[in-house]
Structure formats: structure tokens, C-alpha cells
Amino acid sequence: MASRDRPVEGFYSALNAVSSADADIMEPKNKRVNRRRTAGTYWEVERLVERRERSGAIEYLVLWKGYQAYEASWEPEDFILPRCIELYWRPRPDLSLVRENIVCFRIAVERHLKSQSRLPVRIFLRGDVFRFFIGRQGGF
Fold first, then answer.
1. How do residues 81-95 score in pLDDT, each as one tens digit?
2. Chain Cα centroid distance, residue 63
3. SS (H, E, C) the chain
4. Domain Chromo, which positions (predicted)?
């Protein structure tokens, strides 16, 4: 596919580009909260990845605990527990994950500053870590 040759814009785009060869490296890492799927059955949610509005209804891209990233699905807001939505808006990522993303960010910035290139730099962070630092208001 030609779309795989272009840089990935975000997590949802990355999900579209995932192949079955990538399945082994995309293991879920931590548990968040539960979500009611059918009467009496609960599915564990690792985290909410993205939010969108379709036909006036709000949906969240859910990364399921124990499932691969390409098996994530869009679920209506009504099906998701309020605590899970709260963690999406005010994430509390694991400290080791935050440190790992800080190191990646620092290395990418240093590498770009040392290079002769003046092209824009792309730095990929997990969405929950980014929201943890920046928040929706743009402050730390």
C-alpha cells in the first residue's frame, strides 16, 4: 500500500497501517478500568486512545486489555464507564512509561538540534502521556 510509505499522523492512522506481522510487538501493558459490553459480561479496557464525534454521538477508540492494537474498536460514550472517560481526560500514566517517553522526547530533540537539517521534527508520544503533560488547556 502506498499509505504505509507516508509518515504516520497519529495512533488511529497507525492502527490502520498495522499488519499481522506487527501483532507480537503490540502487547498491552497496564489495566485501566472495566467496561460493560453485554448483559452481565465485562471486558477490561487498557485505555482510551482517541475521541471522535459521529452523527452527534461521541465515540472513543478503546484499546482492550489482552487484545492487539489492531483489535481496538470505536465504542459509544454511553457504553464506557465514567471513570474510564475521566482517565482519558485526566490521565495518570505509570511513572516508568512517563520516564520512557521523556527520554525519547529528549533524545529526539537533541538529535534534531545537533543535525544540520532545518526540517520540522516529528516526535511520537503516547496520547495519554502527552495529555498528562500538556492537558487540554495547553499548560503543565
1. 888 888 888 888 888
2. 8
3. CHHHHCCCCCHHHHHHHCCHHHHHHCCCCCCCEEEEEECCEEEEEEEEEEEEEECCEEEEEEEECCCCHHHCEEEEHHHCCHHHHHHHHCCCCCHHHHHHHHHHHHHHHHHHHHCCCCCCCCCCCCHHHHHHHHCCCCCC
4. 43-88
